[in-house]
Amino acid sequence: MSVNSDLAIAQETTKPSKALNLTIWGVQILTALAFLAAGGSKLSSAPAAVDMFEKIGFGQWLRYVTGSFEVIGAVLLLFPRTAELGGWLLAMVMLAAIGTHLFVIGGSPIPAIALLVLAITVAWNRSR
Predict the structure, then answer these.
(1) What is the pLDDT of residues 62-82, one digit of tens each?
(2) What does the buried/exposed string (b/e) look like for 14-31 if buried means 16 or more CB atoms within 10 Å of the residue's CB?
(3) Are the C-beta atoms of 127 and 84 separated by less than 8 Å?
(4) Stated pTM of the model
(5) How far is residue 29's CA from residue 11's CA, in Å, rounded to a whole number?
């Protein structure tokens, strides 16, 4: 085998299959839509978001920061070069959300855990 054929084999083994790539794109788009909705509700001062951040007790500025991170992360997911970064950014936001539910405001952390899993799935698969 030549060096070129060895390189071609190595590239083929590191690229995800077409089916996996399409699946990850589907996950990316759904995750981006979920975070656009969540971030948009925070940035538009939806009453539920305002109440939740009132319970947290750090002020409404945190709602704007969190909503901004969610929207920025969602947009980053939509571009191949930035999808990994967006996934990790959103994973960090969801870790904070899980901690907030568990230790500050109560309520179920299950939605945040589900979004964490989606964000990590995208980041992990796009890091290859």
Answers:
(1) 999 999 999 999 999 999 999
(2) eeeeeeeeeebbebbeeb
(3) yes
(4) 0.86
(5) 26
